[in-house]
Structures
1.
Amino acid sequence: MSIPKVRVRFAPSPTGPLHIGGVRTALYNYLLARQMGGDMILRIEDTDQTRFVPGAEAYIIESLSWCGIQFDEGVHVGGPYGPYRQSDRKHLYIQYVQQLLDSGHAYYAFDTPDDLEVLRSTHPNFQYDSSTRLGLRNSLTLSEGEVKQLIDAGTPYVVRVRIPAGEEIRVNDLIRGEVRVQSSTLDDKVLFKSDGMPTYHLANIVDDHLMLITHVIRGEEWLPSAPLHILLYRFFGWQAPQFAHLPLLLKPDGNGKLSKRDGDRLGFPVFPLRWTDPKTGDISSGYRESGYYPEAFINLLALLGWNPGTDQEILSIDELIRLFSLDRVNKSGARFDPEKAKWFNQQYLRMQTNDELTESFLLLLSEKGIQAKPEMVKKVVALVKDRVNFINELWDQSWFFFTAPNSYDEGFAKKRWKADSGSLISDLTSRMTTLKEFTTESLDTEIQHFLEEKQVGMGAIMNAMRLAVIGSGMGPHLTEVITLIGREELAIRVRRAISTLNNQ
């Protein structure tokens, strides 16, 4: 007997931006498919038209593309099992809901929302199930003629699944092992609405079957629905796929599911790309716009809830594909650490060559209206790249190479600028700018000679010089900065600092 080809799907709903938890779900599906030589499918599950958000589908596709998650079939690439948008598949679901009605595994229910609300208010634990359905207004309690009359009259209805009473349902989960659920705890979920649209539960099962899905890898929030799905496969007489329910992504403090509110409060993105809410105009930050490399983003997500079995943390997509296995996915939730996310990006930034970083930094400088020679920018990048996590932070660590300070750190100046600082750095600058060789080594040597001659300590003069050149106490080795800004710029900055600081 031949083993069926592995086929997985990522099936988001276009109800808003894609959460990073959803990206991780897509990633795990992708890693398994590529490792097993299988297919990866993107299906858009838009059965709930009331929650549809314009632009969300395009956002999902662009996000996954930026992450490098590629699809073999899907709403944007086509394929032999389409259409891949559930609203385009409405005609398919009617026959399957009718099959369940004909076999007695489903029934029409005519209870109005008001009827059910009254029951919920008078019975706090009310659910529509095997213990209550025979006292309600449905095709199990009405005659066939009454049901036909109601439908012909256009009376609103839903089709509910008929959950069997007194049965133990077993779900074999690839991460959690065997999960057992008593059918008495399940309600008769709605499968089909009178507007002609199926609910998630029916459409999901039908589509996974018709698209030959072998593995359903999804978030643990769907674990309570798995027993119902197992029953539906049985009612249809179909082979169920293998299930794997992934742990939640947790808040940084570990208490509860990670949400957009947590990102807003703590200052980090929870979406892969920037999102503008079409109704409110509110803008949410994204990892791409925050300066993350997609490879770093994917690497950090892969290790949130899964481990490779070693201490290795930096893993390329090829390594992730080779090492991935569902049996190393944790059962418990994974705490999101925004500082660790920055660390991952830092590691990928450091793997970039100086030429690659220079190219990126030149674009940033150009946006700021600064035209700089690539050779000089490359030297700057080499000096400061180990101080940053993101490309845009290169500017924060190196702006003084490209423009003179227009103010001076008051706290640092108060401590380091003394009565004789101006005359000392003026004298030193005169000597430095007349050196035959203007290199870091020659400048360091001249500074040492100057200190010995004046009988002053390094801190007494170099802190004042740093303040004059940079405007604060920050920055790399000072003579490396001076070498790159050049003799003339050094003299200009020192004169301006003396004029400003001596008069304060």
Note: The two ends are 88 Å apart (CA to CA).
2.
Amino acid sequence: MGIYSIWEFLFPAEVAHEGLGVAEAIWNDMPGFEGYVGHELIRDLDDPGHLLVVSRWTTRQRADDSIVEYAGHPNARRAEELVSEPRRRFVGEAVAHSA
């Protein structure tokens, strides 16, 4: 089933639009990384600055390697400047799936 890397971004309301653009730019870069399968970018309907990214990878190592390689990229640095608290991430695997 693959590996999921789930990220949470919390952008203040005044930079929510820019934050969404930065998050989109980050994830538009991910197809260049080995092991990347795809992602969903989800925006909270009640708080537009609250975003989740659910990304899929072939292995945990590939997901972890992408973080190390991308950490210094201007998009990653800009996201860190804009968030109201540090981005959170966890890596998991699907234990159930429905159609």
Note: The mean pLDDT is 95.
3.
Amino acid sequence: MVVTKKIQVSTNGNSEVLDLTPQAVKAVAESGVSAGTATFFVVGSTAAITTTEYEPGLVNHDIKAAFEKIAPKNARYEHEETWHDDNGHSHVCASLLGPSLTVPIVDGKLTLGTWQQIILIDFDTRSRSRQVICQIIGE
């Protein structure tokens, strides 16, 4: 069985981190799949998905600070020269982290650790409406 769900979220951009876990848990529960996988894919090239402990210090500071070291917002990016915009670093950060995450489903539940949540990071420089495709495959 394959079930596809859409999760719609609004973001403020600028490396905002959103916890998608409640929507992900709901999607899996509604799918009726008891054993399989759930893949979460963010549509767009300036956002990414991963897991982390969703706590204020990490999501409000540490993740943003780490990516600022890797791809500084004020550095020179050829992308910005080409398109005359300001989000070259957003594309670099999103590309490094990636647009998707796959989580096993066991006994009808996502196999996340106690302190592990599914997060979306919007690296773009403005607020956005983001769509996350959740595709659940199993039996």
Note: The mean pLDDT is 97.
